[in-house]
Amino acid sequence: MSPDRSAILPVYAPPEIVFTHGEGAHLIAEDGSRHLDFIAGIAVNALGYSHPAAVGALKAQADRIWHLSNMFRIPGQEELARRYVADSFADVVFFTNSGTEAIECALKMARKAHYSAGHPERLGFLGFEGSFHGRSLGAINAAGNPKYLEGFGPALPGFRHLPYGDLEAIRAAITPETAALIIEPVQGEGGCRALPEDFLRDLRQICDEAGIFLIFDEVQCGAGRTGKLFAHEWAGITPDIMAIAKGVGAGFPMGACLATHRASAGMAVGSHGSTFGGNALAMAVGLAVWTEITRPEFLAHVREMSSRLGQSLEGLKARFPDLVLETRGKGLLRGLRLAIDPKPVQIAARAEKLLVGVAGENTLRLAPPLIIGPAEVQEAVEKLDLALGTIAAARAA
After folding, report:
1. Number of folded domains that form the chain
2. Phi/psi class of residue 211: alpha, beta or left (left: φ > 0; alpha: ψ in -120 to 50)?
3. pLDDT tens for residues 80-109?
């Protein structure tokens, strides 16, 4: 029976395959075929599928309370906020349902803090070409990708985009009207580009000297994906505000905006809110996920698998020099920058029952569950080898 998607807003173009359930790092389709998932819901399913801790927490909470709204105290929210604060730079946490909402909170927070400190003129944001911060109007204006703005009216005032990795351009762009600089330590949609640690340290110094806030978007690269809880930890610095989501819910919709007291100083009762953010179901799952990914042995495992995957991808680059131009990324957020459109390679990989993504700059994106083992890494690389071989043969014919 052919699918009927006519009632769905046509903003997605999924393949015909339908998955019915998942086990670990594999998805099982209607016909029973098993597919190795190396995109994980776009860096979301950190614990893979059917993880007993996450499933158990959700089921237990479902028997108690699903939703209260933030009119009332939510004990799980208070507990998870304490955990986030204890394990990060932050003093306070605001819970959201998505990364986009966390970004919106971050933008509002930065402006309100300057306003409350007597600097209402500080409204401007500096972003970077190739960045991605979500799909709301504020988020698409913060990101440096014109295609996401097309058809949605004029660009909002106060947002400026700079060349990726250009410190001198940043210094020159800061004015007395600048409120904050927003950046992903490791880009996802922009092509799996990881900023050098020295660059991140320079950003921290520049923001301190200018009196502006440093906002990190770790929606995709946080939650243990690089082998540390947050990607910025590799540089030994901290932001003033940070947006997280995706992996912190391991598949359940949730996110958060973390901030210092200084950066959140203007946020008082009524200045921001969410009906569903921090709901009891999300907090139950979030606590279970955080307990798993903060274990030192879990993060050590991510680092070990990251090293294996990175070395194996370099092997593919050596084997297919005419197709693979560069390996990119950090931890288990990796990319192969190709000499061609990555979509045919993605389709060829899917034919080998390997699920991967695509990103900017002709990049094939890999963001597997963090629970993968050596066997899954080897399986994925072997399937990628077959997919690249198929494309290479077709190009040579």
Report:
1. 2
2. left
3. 999 999 999 999 999 999 999 999 999 999
136 and 169, same domain (yes or no): yes
Chain centre distance of CA 248: 10
Which tokens is 336 given?
């192969």
* Residue that finishes a domain, picked among 245, 275, 293: 293
Give the structural domain span for 272: 65-293
Structure tokens at 14: 């999924």
What is the spatial distance between Cα 17 and Cα 40, in angstroms, rounded to a whole number? 16
CA distance 33 to 240: 46
Radius of gyration of the chain (CA): 21
**In this predicted structure, what is the pLDDT of residue 1?**
44
Of 46, 18, 15, 44, the residue nearest 30 (C-alpha) = 18
Task: Report the alpha-carbon distance of residue 153 to residue 146 in Å, rounded.
Answer: 12
Take residue 304 and report the two structure tokens written for it: 């070990």
- pTM tops 0.70: yes
At 242, list the tokens: 């940070």
